[in-house]
Amino acid sequence: MTATGYLAAGSSAGDGAVTAADGGTADGATAAAFDVAAVRADFPILTRTVRGGNPLVYLDSGATAHKPRQVLDAEREFYTTHNSAAHRGAHLLGEEATDAYEGARARVAAFIGADPGEIVFTKSATEALNLVAYAMSNAATAGPEAGRFRVGPGDEVLVTEMEHHANLVPWQQLCQRTGATLRWFGVTPDGRLDLSDASALINDRTRVVAVTHQSNVTGTVPPVGEITALAHSRGALVVADGAQSVPHRPVNVATLGPDFLAFSAHKMLGPSGIGVLWGRRELLEAMPPFVTGGSMIEVVRMEGSTFLPPPERFEAGVPAAAQAVGLAAACDYLDALGMPAVAAHEEALTARALDALGAVPGVRILGPLTTEHRGGAVSFTVEGIHPHDVGQVLDELGIAVRTGHHCAWPLHRALGVQSSTRATFYVYNTPAEVDALADGVRQAQKFFAR
Amino acid sequence: MQLESLYQEIILDHYRNPQNKGLREPFDAEVMHVNPTCGDEVTLRVALKDAGGEPVVADVSYDALGCSISQASASMMTEMIIGKTVREAMEISAAFLTLMQSRGAAEPDEDMLGDAIAFEGVSRYPARIKCALLGWMAWKDATARALGEQAGNGGKATGAGALNGRGTGGEQVNGQAGDGQAAADAAREQT
Known about the structure:
The complex is a heterodimer of chains A (450) and B (191).
Chain A: H1 5-13, H2 36-40, E1 57-58, H3 69-82, H4 92-111, E2 119-122, H5 125-138, E3 156-160, H6 169-178, E4 181-185, H7 198-201, E5 206-212, H8 224-233, E6 237-241, H9 253-256, E7 260-264, E8 275-279, H10 281-286, E9 297-301, E10 304-307, H11 321-337, H12 339-358, E11 363-365, E12 377-382, H13 387-396, E13 399-400, E14 402-404, H14 409-414, E15 420-424, H15 431-448
Parallel strand pairs in A: 1-13, 3-4, 3-5, 5-6, 6-7
Antiparallel strand pairs in A: 2-8, 7-8, 9-10, 11-12, 12-15, 14-15
Helix pairs in contact in A: 1-3, 1-11, 3-11, 4-11, 5-6, 12-15, 13-15
Chain B: H1 3-6, H2 9-16, E1 29-34, E2 41-51, E3 54-65, H3 68-81, H4 86-100, H5 110-113, H6 126-151, E4 157-160, H7 181-190
Parallel strand pairs in B: 1-4
Antiparallel strand pairs in B: 1-2, 2-3
């Protein structure tokens, strides 16, 4: 039997065009070998023009990344050849779809150093985080095995002030449902987590710590490993939001050490509509479901139902197989480049952006001013010009950025700004695009000074 | 550059020199509206008076944080509607909404809209329409509340936009949440 679905598509995913960093280049020193022109050739959307006939300078990958043809091809190949409902159907296509879906699960697991049984496909990183938060309140009425997920009055849920709303609001809501108390790490003026009172904030009442693995606003990379060690010493669970880290640098769940990690496909060159929750096997096994229905049940009677083991317990409904296949192809693509090389490429762009924007009078960069423990999200304000107006001028020049609070309103408040302009970088961005951004900001200043 | 059609000189003038900015007494209703996608906000007060049995916009004042489009629109709005009857002001508001939703295809009614036809360019940028409407929706909401107060129980009406309201927790809304119906209506029209 030949390999089907993802497996077949996967074998062609890391092919010729991705020449930058194939096997054995697992150190940062390969940055010089990163062939951004070859990468760009894989992304059809980069050939289009935007307002004013300008070429697209896409600096909004932190919101969603573009897709290489290898990912598009993999998804298309699934639909044209194997399409069927995975885990159902007494027919060949159903078997092929199941193989493709489960093959994708194994591929994603390998990408973060996990076991396939620990990979739960969700519809987004947001849903993955909600899954854990809702499972924790559902634990109140689940069996004794779910005891360690229960929270109630007197318990504390710890978050940080720099979270994306997706890793904040679900925990606020969990506290509202259960009577637990929400507490949070503050942020220092330079955009780092304020860990000065960590030993007080993480205490015997702390049941869960939810922390970002990279801020989507400042790029700050909090010390998730240290926080995890502290949390585990007090018996608390750790949920890491990897939406901005997994796409951009090597992440290995075994060395990082949290209990759960959420991320989404569409920010890592994959399709929209699918996300991932990684969880420790013993925890997933003890955790009650969030969304229930078909695919996740063991036995259903009118009086009640029992549920499958993980990961199926958390995957109600027909699986998003084509999206999973696309995500697996994205993992192939990124691994062919080499995640250390991806990280090094972005670090160089970030350093250039910090320098170039920092040299523009009136620009204030939010967060760390060096690339130390900092990823490729650069948010800034321009004195006297509202971010939406900055973004409008940049758009006119073909430069796509995000403006507003970037779903991190409390962080903006903590940094004393109402909103900001944000540039984010990925594999297809070039130093020239960073320079175009800085030049565009100067043009915005000129335009509004007229 | 297309930008000049969006940022017309009169818009930038109002942005740099906003009219009727700064909250004033007396007022019959105060609302706070937020654009949740960008965090822009406006706190707006309305004072009505009775002129021969018909309510008239006696005063509109506001405080706001926002982009040039939202600031200029609020500023220009106050100039256009203070002194008008509520009915006339609502007609202007409706005409402005129509212009904003026109995607650049409308023939703006200059008699009705005056300087506000400068915002025609905004309608070609869908992401900016909410900016231009922020002040107008706050005014409609505040006016509905003020009329409700006049008709019913005494005291000032205050509130936060129901759909535009602050749901992110931790922060005190400006005054009581109210029934939010007017704000909900306004927000529905906005989208």
